[in-house]
Write a sequence for this structure.
């Protein structure tokens, strides 16, 4: 079986292996091999390999499988991995404790095991967790060559959406102005900035904004990222349009009396070339704001959850109602992201608005 391998001179092998391990791209199911003075290091995500390394196809021998939780339990448990945290979703406390112990006793690289203790709730989209093993809810998650520090107890983050995030970010061009209306810790913003876009992330959650700033520095794109804490509807409130972003936090929280935004970063009306709207249960409520943020030409990535019989129709109709006749609306791509619930789909509409 051929797999992608990083090809380096033998004396550079350990340095390369460490760098690839830091990016969490090593294919641990295969052996590292040596031939004619070259070292071949198997990887499972060639897109995340640093550009200076050559990637070739090889057929390395399979590595003897380490003892995993299923080997200890006698059955295959269901879990997710996020950095060094293993996430369970078990209703039975005894079964959850049994799986947690097996995870910690196995070769799985895990520091903490958490069990979901509540559904996602509130406008900040956070949930409660039971810590079954280890300590804490903070970790560093790696995907497609980027690192995201986050605290699961304080912010929303789904590792299941990595492929979808990559699909969207691959469309970003150098010099674009990208605005994520519900940015979280930056999984759209950071890679967009890495593609030489000017990226703005807005979120109500102050912890998410703090992590977004940290992650911008961690990934070397802080000079192209602006983090704004507050309701995205305030980004255009009271603006006559067109203000350029300044890097750093702009606090746009308005008072209960309805005062205008007080931060330095208000004023993005007519600014964006690309807008991410990943709030699938209620993105339609923010379409008026998205249209105000859009420049003369702008691509919306509009996320929705709808019945499988018509997963895209409601979103497309809502976008047209908000944008027409000021903009011509054309749907460029319709993507089923995942199954959300029985007969319900999480989808994305890539829609171009042209004034």
């Amino acid at each position: 079986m051929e797999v992608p391998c990083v090809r380096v001179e033998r004396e550079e092998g350990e340095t390369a292996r460490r760098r690839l391990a830091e990016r969490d791209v090593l294919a641990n199911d295969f052996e590292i091999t040596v031939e004619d003075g070259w070292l071949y290091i198997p990887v499972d995500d060639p897109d995340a390999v640093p550009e200076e390394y050559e990637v070739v196809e090889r057929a390395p021998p399979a590595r003897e499988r380490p003892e995993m939780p299923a080997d200890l339990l006698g059955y295959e448990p269901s879990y997710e991995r996020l950095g060094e945290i293993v996430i369970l979703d078990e209703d039975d406390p005894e079964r959850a404790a049994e799986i947690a112990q097996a995870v910690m006793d196995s070769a799985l690289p895990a520091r903490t095991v958490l069990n979901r203790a509540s559904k996602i709730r509130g406008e900040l989209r956070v949930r409660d967790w039971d810590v079954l093993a280890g300590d804490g809810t903070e970790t560093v998650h790696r995907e497609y060559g980027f690192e995201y520090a986050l605290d699961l107890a304080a912010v929303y983050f789904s590792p299941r959406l990595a492929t979808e995030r990559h699909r969207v970010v691959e469309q970003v061009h150098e010099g674009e102005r990208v605005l994520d209306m519900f940015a979280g810790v930056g999984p759209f913003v950071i890679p967009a900035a890495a593609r030489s876009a000017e990226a703005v992330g807005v979120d109500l959650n102050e912890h998410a904004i703090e992590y977004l700033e940290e992650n911008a520095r961690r990934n070397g794109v802080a000079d192209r990222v602006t983090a704004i804490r507050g309701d995205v509807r305030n980004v255009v409130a009271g603006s006559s349009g067109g203000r350029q972003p300044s890097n750093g936090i702009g606090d746009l929280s308005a008072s209960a009396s309805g005062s205008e935004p007080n931060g330095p970063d208000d004023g993005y009306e007519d600014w964006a070339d690309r807008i991410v709207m990943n709030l699938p249960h209620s993105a339609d409520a923010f379409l008026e704001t998205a249209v105000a943020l859009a420049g003369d030409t702008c691509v919306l990535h509009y996320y929705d959850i709808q019945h499988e019989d018509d997963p895209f129709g409601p979103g497309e109709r809502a976008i047209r109602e908000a944008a027409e006749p000021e903009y011509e609306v054309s749907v460029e791509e319709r993507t089923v992201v995942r199954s959300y619930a029985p007969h319900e789909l999480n989808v994305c509409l890539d829609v171009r608005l042209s004034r």
